[in-house]
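User: Could you check the structure of this?
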Amino acid sequence: MKELLFQTLRHEETSRAPWVPFAGVHAGKLKGYDATEMLTDVDKAVESLLEVNRLYKPDGQPVIFDLQIEAECLGCGLSWAKDCPPSVATHPLDGSDDEPPVTPCDCSIPTKESGRIPYVLEVMRRMKQEVGETTALYGLICGPFTLASHLRGNNLFTDMYDFEDEVASLFAYCKRVCMRMVDYYVEAGMDVIALVDPLISQISTSHFEDFMTEPYTELFDYIREKGVYSSFFVCGDATRNIEAMCQTNPDSISVDENVNLLAAKAISDKYNIVIGGNIPLTTVMLLGNQQDNMKFAVDLLDSVEVKKNFILAPGCDMPYDVPIENTIGVAQAALETDAVRQMVQNYQAEAVDTSNVELPDYASLKKPLVEVFTLDSAQCAACGYMMLAANSAKETFGDAIDLVEYKFIYRENVARCVKMGVSNLPSMYINGELKYSSIIPAKAELEKTIQEAIESCKR
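Assistant: Sure, the predicted structure tokens are below.
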């Protein structure tokens, strides 16, 4: 199993596509532990991850899926939850958007003793000892852009226009943090180092090229020098940045359901880079049944056709409450594709029922209605920062606007997305009109847009 994944990462043809379930806090559910227990207790984490290995029969698996490990070490306050990883609640470099970000000194780069790093390293060492001979283990590191966002907050998005040199310095610091984490995780026995940077989907290609091409190219070269494989994880609609990502030369990239996988694979194949994904986290894995999952996995494998440069995986970190039988169904489809194809050949998934969804009468609103459609702002970084922008606007305008978040993890909100025609998450609508899709608005820009909506409602 492990060798199958390695063959794929070496760009060789294989008998089947390798299967890598991204079971982060979902692993805890398998043994009855909540997310906080899973992400703080070594014994409970190892027990849970071993159950992932037993039930889902992966060729590779992540050890700890928590993008706040580094941020916590660097002074970010966290907000903990029972059913998802913690989210960043405070940003130590946050401040006035009129002042540039200050880059921390290198003496603050996390050590092996910082924060929860000892916990992560011990889980890695024990998992390596238990299943390392048969399963490729992924060490996940928060990528430099998302880490900088954790430190600076939403001001980072305007900083890229107003303080280019200072932002470049902050990104270079975050790159050095990532390099130190690479050292720790490789020493702990990780086979694949994944840089997970969900907010890459929220920036333009020109900003990626200006600020991210150099640090990412250096990072992937550094990982390669360490003798292990690399992966570039993104979430959201990163379509515009797929080629720029490939040009940084990772061994693999991983995308979610917002990206057309076949179109993205055409680009990654051009650079001979493996692509992984992109089973939908909510509509299929969380809210579907076992047959939905088997059918989607088989259809995805069949659409890829060639058994080269592809890894079957969920679109990102699996929600805590994904039914166990659904992931087992995907594992069966991965391991016994021909048999499962026959089982589901006549299966038709149930259509989403939108009959009970009532949309507001947007034309008659007395004040602007800001609707933010997210996967879940508590567990999706890009969604969280879009909600942060919306909440900031709510603080500015108060009762002059209404604000609501629709989380895609609930069946009724899936139906609302279908009826509204929401195609990408996160997205922000104002008075029923799409204003921002997979891009986080700058504070001044969003306030200007809302002020125009206020004036429009008055007319």
